[in-house]
Specification:
Layout: H1 18-35, E1 49-54, H2 60-71, E2 75-80, H3 92-101, E3 106-111, H4 116-121, E4 127-133, H5 139-153, E5 160-164, H6 171-182, E6 186-190, E7 206-208, H7 211-217, E8 220-223, H8 239-246, H9 250-254, E9 262-263, H10 276-279, H11 286-305
Parallel strand pairs: 1-2, 1-3, 3-4, 5-6, 5-8, 6-7, 8-9
Helix pairs in contact: 1-11, 2-11, 5-6, 5-11
C-alpha cells in the first residue's frame, strides 16, 4: 500500500479533498481484506503511540478506533476525562501537551465543543483525528457510511441518499452531507421543521418534512436517533408524535415497492426512529457499517502516519 493524505490531520470532511477520500477508500479495501483473513494484525504502526482522548461517552467509535490501532500494532493509551486532571481544572491544551511530552504520536479526539480538534491542530505537532466534536463533524463516520454504499453500488454518482431525523444536533448528518455530495450523490434531509437547520439548502441538499415522500425519492436512507442529550428545549410535541411521523417501519417501506438500503450510525433507539424488525432485516447495512468502520479507521491511521512532518 502506498500514498499519503494531503494534510497531517483528519479534522472534517468539508475541507478534505476528493482525492484523499478516494485514497482512504482504496486503502480501506486493502485493510478490509486483511480484516477478513486469518491473520488480522499487521506490524504497520508498531513504532507509534496513539492516545484515544475521549471527553464524551462512546462505545462504537472508541472500540472501533482501539481495535483499528491494535490491528496496526500501535501502542495505545486510553484517556477518560472523569479520571484525569481535567476534572481538576486542567485545560485541553495542557492535557495534550503533557501527553505529547510522553512522545505520543497521534491523538484521536472526541470532544463536546465544536472546533476542539481544529483548535488543537493549531497548537500541537502530533496527528489529530476528529472522532466527533459537538454538533460539528464526525469524519470517520461519514467515510464509513460512504464506503459502505460504495461497496454496495460501486459509485455514489447521481444516487439519491436521504438522511432522516435529528439533523440539527447531528455531527454525522453534516459530515455525511459533505462526503456524499463530494462523491456525486444527491442528498435530502428529512425531519420536523424544528430539527432541520435553516442553512441546509445552502449546502446543496433538498429538505423534506414528509418521510413517505422522502422514501419515494431516495435510493438509500440513513436514520438518525433523537439526540436528547444535546437538546435544551423540546423540538417536537412528544416522542410518540415524532415516532408516528418519522419512524421507519415495514408498512412504510412496503408502500414504495422497491428495496431501500438502511443505514444507521448508532446507537439505535429501537421503536423510535426505526423498528427492530427493520434494524435486523437484510435491508439494514448497520453491521456492515460497523465492520467497515474498523477498516476505514485503520486506513486513516495508516495514511496519516505517513504524512511528513506530522510527528
Amino acid at each position: 500500500m502506498k500514498g499519503q493524505l494531503n494534510h497531517p490531520h483528519l479534522l472534517g470532511i468539508q475541507h478534505l479533498p476528493l482525492e484523499d477520500i478516494l485514497l482512504i477508500f482504496q486503502t480501506t479495501d486493502n485493510f478490509l481484506k486483511i480484516q477478513q483473513g486469518p491473520i488480522r494484525k499487521v506490524p504497520t504502526l508498531r513504532d507509534l503511540t496513539v492516545v484515544n482522548l475521549f471527553f464524551e461517552s462512546s462505545t462504537r467509535t472508541r472500540f472501533s478506533f482501539e481495535l483499528a490501532e491494535r490491528r496496526l500494532s500501535a501502542d495505545i493509551l486510553n484517556f477518560s476525562a472523569d479520571s484525569s486532571s481535567v476534572s481538576k481544572g486542567e485545560t485541553l491544551l495542557d492535557t495534550v501537551n503533557n501527553l505529547i511530552a510522553m512522545k505520543v504520536d497521534m491523538i484521536v479526539l472526541r470532544h463536546p465543543d465544536p472546533g476542539a480538534a481544529i483548535y488543537l491542530s493549531n497548537h500541537i505537532q502530533a496527528n489529530i483525528i476528529n472522532a466527533g466534536d459537538g454538533t460539528h463533524e464526525h469524519p470517520t463516520q461519514a467515510l464509513l457510511d460512504s464506503f459502505t454504499l460504495m461497496r454496495l453500488w460501486g459509485s455514489l454518482q447521481d444516487k439519491k441518499i436521504a438522511i432522516v431525523g435529528d439533523i440539527r444536533h447531528s455531527r454525522v448528518a453534516l459530515s455525511d452531507i459533505f462526503a456524499f455530495t463530494k462523491l456525486g450523490a444527491q442528498v435530502q434531509v428529512c425531519g420536523p421543521k424544528t430539527l432541520i437547520p435553516p442553512f441546509m439548502e445552502s449546502l446543496g441538499v433538498s429538505v423534506s418534512y414528509s418521510l413517505d415522500n422522502t422514501l419515494a425519492w431516495c435510493d438509500a436512507v440513513i436514520m438518525l436517533r433523537i439526540q436528547s442529550e444535546r437538546q435544551e428545549m423540546a423540538y417536537y410535541p412528544s416522542l410518540r408524535e415524532y415516532t408516528l411521523q418519522y419512524s421507519l417501519t415495514r408498512e412504510r417501506l412496503e408502500k414504495q415497492h422497491k428495496i431501500i438500503p438502511i443505514l444507521h450510525p448508532g446507537p439505535i433507539n429501537r421503536g423510535v426512529e426505526i423498528t427492530s424488525e427493520l434494524a435486523d432485516s437484510p435491508q439494514a447495512l448497520i453491521l456492515e457499517q460497523v465492520e467497515n468502520g474498523v477498516a476505514v479507521r485503520m486506513a486513516v491511521l495508516y495514511l496519516l502516519a505517513g504524512v511528513p512532518g506530522a510527528q
